[in-house]
């Protein structure tokens, strides 16, 4: 996760876009990439120049998901019951 975050930040600093794509056929992709048995792809990262950056995350901007309040995502001293 940290490596992807660093890649994303470095790409943005260089004016490049990075997209996380998780809608794909994992078996077909594993075969295409010649991945060893037991290895499963989680996502495809698309990196390259973009015409513009989104004002908000694409999921939110396109109406696919809404930003959740921070207090619903963070817990202190344990998990919520």
Question: How would you characterize this protein structure?
Answer:
The structure is a single chain. With 81 residues, the protein is of the alpha+beta class. The chain has one domain: NADH Oxidase. The protein has helices at 2-13, 26-33, 58-61, and strands spanning 16-21, 44-49. Strands 1-2 form a two-stranded antiparallel ribbon. The longest helix is centred in the first third of the chain and has 12 residues, at 2-13. The relative contact order is 0.14.
Question: What CATH architecture do you see?
Answer: 3-Layer(aba) Sandwich
The level-1 CATH class: Alpha Beta
Structural class category: alpha+beta
CATH superfamily: NADH Oxidase
End-to-end distance: 27 Å
Radius of gyration: 17 Å
**What is the mean pLDDT?**
91
Topology summary:
Elements lengths: L1 H12 L2 E6 L4 H8 L10 E6 L8 H4 L20
Antiparallel strand pairs: 1-2
Describe the structure concisely.
The protein is of the alpha+beta class and 81 residues long. Helices cover 30% and strands 15% of the residues.
Keywords:
81 residues, alpha+beta, NADH Oxidase, two-stranded antiparallel sheet, 2 strands, extended
């Amino acid at each position: 996760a940290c490596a992807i975050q660093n890649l994303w930040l470095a790409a943005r600093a260089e004016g490049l876009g990075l997209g996380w794509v998780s809608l794909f056929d994992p078996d077909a992709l594993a075969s295409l990439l010649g991945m060893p048995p037991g290895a499963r792809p989680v996502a495809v990262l698309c990196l390259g120049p973009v015409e513009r950056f989104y004002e908000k995350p694409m999921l939110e901007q396109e109406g696919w998901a809404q930003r959740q309040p921070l207090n619903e995502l963070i817990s202190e001293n344990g998990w919520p019951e």
